[in-house]
Fold:
Amino acid sequence: MSACAPPHAQHPRPPHTPAPTRRRFRVGGADLSAAVAVFLIALPLSLGIALATGAPLQAGLVAAAVGGIVVGRLGGCPLQVSGPAAGLTVVTADLIHRYGWRTTCGITVLAGLAQLGLGCLRVARGALAVSPAVVHGMLAGIGITIAVAQLHIVLGGSPDSSVLANLRDLPAQLADLHPAALSMSALTLALLLAWPRLPGRAGRLLRRVPAALVAVTGAAATAALAGLALPRVELPSWHSHALAGLPEGPALGIAAAVLATTLVCSVQSLLGAVAVDKLVAARPGPQSRVGRSDLDRELLGQGTANIVSGALGGLPIAGVAVRSTANVNAGAVSRNSTMLHGVLVVVAALLMVPILEEIPLASLAALVMAVGIQMVSLHHIRTVTRHREVPVYAATTLGVVLLGVLQGVLLGIAVAVALALHRLARTRITHEEKEGVHHVRVRGQLTFLAVPRLSRALHLVPAGAHAVVELDGSFIDHAAYESLQDWRSSHAARGGTAELAGRRDGIRTAEPAPAAACRCRPWTPWRNHRSCFAAAPAAPAGQEAGHELARGISSFQRNTAPLVREELARLAREGQRPSQLFLTCADSRLVTSMITASGPGDLFVVRNVGNLVPPPDEEHGDDSVAAAIEYAVEVLGVRSITVCGHSGCGAMQALLAAGADRPDTPLRRWLRHGLPSLARMAGDRPDRPRLAGRDPADAVELLCLTNVVQQLAHLRAHASVARALAKGELELHGMYFHVGEAQAYLLARSEGGTVFEDVTEGVGGGEEAREEVRAASPR
Structure:
């Protein structure tokens, strides 16, 4: 199947899914209000970005309309709004300066074709591998370039194509100020800053109107009322609008231009889609109609939009953070809001020309300059500083400002690679002696490059001494591993001892376990446990059992304790708050944490022989089980109680084999609480419990299943349980675990009687299943 096949062809409908009915285009209230909000932001920004690039102002409107309609319909991120982006300003301005407007449109078409090719190759996720420091640095460099250029228009002049030239000419521009342009720019900036900070209830209502629209409208109205003579927006007739032309220029230069446009458009759009997913996930309320982004489809939609925009004489298109954020925050729930915003741009471009031509160019320049300044984000700077990636950020920013976007990004990637190699190769190894113990500390990644220094430090440890090698890093390669193990073996042969210590946060080395240590993985210390230890000299049975216990504790301290220490410390501070009481058999094969995938603090576990619950009115009842039930329900406030039986239960076998001539022992007295289960099984009952799909294999399995049902009946008789059930604060569950099959079953009810059903088929999940379990529990 072709990778370019449409989404419905790539993901055929399951056979059981009915054919969808064709629905008309409908716009809900949330999408309509979001579309209007985005349109009010997009209109002035599109004109301002077109002004900043030196393109015809209508090109910004064309790109906004195409981005809204085409990407909105075809893109893979339903709520991302695309159009002319500030991040493309520098690239586009450079292309117009070098090749002219019509060739720039042709380059935009070629970039769209390149995006379609990348989308067909399904490499969209690869763009996310670019270091965030490179992306943030690119945006910062573009923002600085935009701000410096637009500052000249704000002051009443015209910018140069070079950042250095604009900085060099700035003193002369400050000496030749244009009061009218400067006043409108100052008014625009003041409104942009003040509008989002309006206080009180009235301020909350007014802030619903976008600050960009208020700023530009306020400046235009003030200029018109004051009769100021200053340059304004000029929108020529659509009849004279320039369309795309064939690219003219050196082939290598055109190829580099297409590459730069493709890179910036794609990376900004894909990162924007990921950011929109995070915004949608954090938004309160149901998100049923908003799915996660399909990045390959988003790339295809962006490529199609760039082809259409370039062919119609529009600016390059990418996902725009400001408009996308406004769309999500306004409550949009589908791609209809994005498409409708594009339609509104078309209507404005056709019917609102006289109004748009009242906007002062200085006001649009101030708006775009503010956007450029915001692209130099303090949050991004703090983030790269925290991750020690300031060199990458700085190199990318300076490269974009001084050399250009493509060159700056390549420079940033080169610095990122060099920094990663430096970190990989930079390892600090120290040796010191404290109280007769030699400590060799390794800080950083341990690779073959550090083997000579590691060997020198290890040979400082004298023969027969005790040494501790502390490895503080997440990686150790084969050469370093072999060197470390060879030294450890030779040091032990000379009568010394060596201990390898990893980090306490769970990042550990891959050293082989010593002869007396468990070689199991952290999650399988129970598997064939005797094979986990090397053969040892014969020892008395009790002594060997003690040694196994000590080795198990030692394995826990080395392998598991570092992983759970933080969580256990939290539970020690806060106390236990389990949500479930799990009452099961004391059988050693039943590992509750394993079969329930639970951890510390999750379950309040009570275990006894036969998972029995003595009735509260039993003459010789056992108060320990009743006390645990009362404590769990009344004090801990558990929300559910599960009685779990298992296959091959020794207690049930003892019940079946019990005879009247057996001596009266503590075990026999305890098993009397299981006699009601034996009587229930012997009775002629139509609802005998069974496993889903089959009857019990033998009498022991039938009694194990019946015992779970009977103990639930005993459980309901306890006063604390009865009160909680009456208030709807507690649920009772029955469970059966087949040891040989490693299969869990939950008690449910079907037309055939009481059935223990396979958990993997959904029983026990959701309110419907819980109702089945409640109904199946005997009253």
Summary: The chain has a mean pLDDT of 80. The longest helix spans residues 541-574.
